[in-house]
Structure formats: structure tokens, C-alpha cells
Amino acid sequence: TDEITFSSSHLINNYFNNYPEPVRDFLKKFREKYSADDIKKKILEEGINLEVAHMGASALGISGQGDIDLYILCKKEDFNIYAPRIEKIFGRRVSGISIYKWQLNIDRFEVEMYLTDPKTPSMKEQIDVFEKLKNNKELLKEYESIKSSVDGSSFREYMRRKYEFFNKILE
Known about the structure:
single chain, 171 residues, alpha+beta, five-stranded mixed beta sheet, globular
């Protein structure tokens, strides 16, 4: 809604460019070491041999909401095989029909974890956008600039600008 304001500036690990290089490096390493990697390890230790993709702002090392987005890539027809095994480790999922979602808080970091089919059109686009941003520093700077420019704007405006940019780079 327009009453909700998008502002992530109050959260730690946001706006990495405002921190000196050594601090940014520390924050990136801390976030990787104590969150994404630990979760991936727990999944693999349970014999769940699926790819776990760390994507989003935290994986890119740019401004964000301070959360970590993990995607467990799995064929949709195998969701019912893996979802109960993932729930055994992390508890019940919070939603899901075409994508299953868990919200976790690990080592003071919010984690959104999804069991998702990488063959769906929306997930293919999301992976494509992430790879383009990861591999093109100019696009990444432009994306971070857009995110910074909407700080204090409505969530709707933030999402409009974000997906406008994503659609542009997918053309």
C-alpha cells in the first residue's frame, strides 16, 4: 500500500558504500560465514542434494533490507519429497503453492528461503537478472542507485522502479 514506506537505511549492513572498504569486507564475510554458508551446510548434511542459490542484495554485496535470500532449486514434482525434510531442519514453511517459503532468523539475520523450480519462467528471469547484475558492475551500480533513490518512497514506488529496471536489463 502507499502507507508503507520503503526505508532500509535503519538496518545494519545497508548501504555498504557508506562504510569504509575494510568494514564492507568484514560485513560481507560475516554475513556469508555465519548465515548463507551455514544454512547451505545444514541442508547438505541432511542429505538434501539440491543446489542452494544465494541471491539478492546480500549476495551482490549492495544496499538492501539486511536479509538473506536463499533458493533451494528443485523440480516442482519433487517438492513433496524435499519440503518435509527441509521442515525437519528449519520448521514449518510459512507459505507456498507454486513456491514454498520459510522465514528464519539466524545469527541476527533475517533469512527468506524458498523451495522453487528453476524451470519456471519467473525463476528463470530471477536467475537471469541476478547473473546479469553479478557479472556487470555498471548494471549493479545502476541498480543500487535506483534502490537508494527510492529510499523513503512508498513500497509500491520501490517495486515499480525495481521491476522497470529488471525488465530493461532482460530485454
